[in-house]
Amino acid sequence: MHTHKEWQITLDMARERGWTATVGSNHSVTYVECPAKNPQCRVKAFSTGRGAENAARNSRNKIRNCIHAETGLLETATLRMDSAETFLTATSAELTLRSVGRRAEELLEMLDQVDSALDEAASAVERLGEEFTETAEREQQARDARDRAIEAVGGGTPQEWIVQAGSDLRRAEQDIKGVPKKQPSSGAARKRLDSLKNQCAELRKQISTETSNTDR
Ligand SMILES: [Zn+2]
């Protein structure tokens, strides 16, 4: 430390640039030398005396003009790069944390989606299971009805039955044409004939659809 403010600034500047200070034996003078100890770069800082302010300022010019100070500047540069490295490490660590945090949020969201997809799949399994049970019951009923019907017609295939039904209905139509319209229940018979003809046409359509589906 130097008691004079201007000298203090000068000594600080010298130290930053790698200059070394040596206190003289009588303690009233401090010798400051550039890193190369070049005789041209030698500053004497008196602790007292007139003109200290100007002397201190002039010395600063000498320090600035030193062409041997690369070592000091290099040290300063090294310190600044150390500092910069600290900031860069902090920045990188923070950015890494943010990126990892975002990925964690993404994964959480995906887990949520998969979770609700699993829920949906589970309820689909339940729905399909219920429908299968109902369908199996209907299949049993349909099998019973088919067995009874086959017993009534004495065997064959739907293609044969529909042909037989068509032929029966054509004959019935001929018969009904011969019935006087006044005769009771002839209207009901005509209605039934129409209904059966419709049913016959509908079933014929179903058979041909089924056949073309099976062919495919
Ligand atoms: Zn120098």
Overview of this protein structure:
This protein has about 220 residues and is mainly alpha-helical. The chain folds into three domains: about 5-70; about 85-155; about 155-215. The protein contains five helices and three strands. The chain has helices spanning about 5-15, 50-65, 70-155, 160-175, 185-215, and strands spanning about 20-25, 30-35, 40-45. α1 runs parallel beside α2. The radius of gyration is 55 Å and the shape is rod-shaped. The two termini are about 105 Å apart. It binds zinc ion (ZN).
Helix tally? 5
Distance between the termini: 103 Å
Tell me the quaternary state: single chain
Strand order of the largest sheet: 1-2-3
Which H/E pattern describes the elements?
A: HEEEHHHH
Shape from CA axes? rod-shaped
Radius of gyration: 55 Å
Task: Give me the secondary-structure category.
Answer: mainly alpha
Helix fraction by DSSP (H/I, runs of at least 4): over 70%
Topology of this protein?
Layout: H1 5-16, E1 20-23, E2 29-33, E3 42-46, H2 52-65, H3 70-153, H4 158-177, H5 186-215
Helix pairs in contact: 1-2, 4-5
Bound molecules: zinc ion.
Residues 34, 36, 38, 41, 66, 68-69 line the site of zinc ion (ZN).
Key attributes of the depicted protein:
216 residues, mainly alpha, 3 domains, 3-stranded antiparallel beta sheet, 5 helices, rod-shaped, binds zinc ion
Could you give a short description of this structure?
This protein is mainly alpha-helical.
